[in-house]
Amino acid sequence: MKNLLKEFKEFALRGNVMELAVAVIMGAAFQGIISSLTGDIISPVLGLFGGVDFSNLAINIGDASIRYGAFITAVINFIIMAFVIFLMVKGMNKLAGLRKTKDSEEEEEKTKTCPYCYTEIPQKAVRCPHCTTVLVKRKKQASAEIQSED
Description:
Blueprint: H1 2-12, H2 15-50, E1 59-61, E2 64-66, H3 68-110, E3 111-113, E4 120-122, H4 139-149
Antiparallel strand pairs: 1-2, 3-4
Transmembrane segments: 20-46, 66-89
Keywords: Cell membrane, Ion channel, Ion transport, Membrane, Transmembrane, Transmembrane helix, Transport
GO cellular component, one term: plasma membrane
């Protein structure tokens, strides 16, 4: 039992779970804002053009009342919430893409490709570890060759 409680404590206090809890609380608060936006602003404005407030629309069948206006308001809530989430995810993906581009540029600068075996090797390598080809002549050899050409 102690082991189970210890595992649960480790699980509950991990960063992912805490971030999820914060996200759920923020989502619930944001849902209240969206509900107010549709119920208090959008529905009355649409009611001006249609002459009716959506939230009060209903069909009475016997003792049952089908409130399709409340359903329309819920659909508008969903569309607005989905659109806002879409914009947030799109923005986050764009930021993540910028970070990946910078990381990949830094990674490209750290490596080069062997012209003989096409293995990716460190930029500073003078010999390919895969095919053992000498890639860059040493400074003394290069300076000696330059002097012999003169």
